[in-house]
Specification:
90 residues, mainly alpha
Length: 90
Amino acid sequence: MSQPPSKSSEEETQQKARRENVLRVALTSEARQRLMNVRMVKPELAASIEEYIVQLVSSGKLKSEIDDDQLKELLMSLQERKRDIRIRRI
């Protein structure tokens, strides 16, 4: 016999649904597609971007939808800078 889901899992499901709704409203379709692609490759980066967007919406600082170019800028600003290592031979 299966046990009924616990309250915490129900709350997590509801919270995830609210988060998805906020992202659906805040992002254009191209930006959502890019975020899904990033989520497949770098889930930590996608999670931080999603959290940032949810915070912007909840605080009322987001005036319009985030398009693909704006999402690219957010990704570049939050992505860790890679060190450029060059080997010079003498």
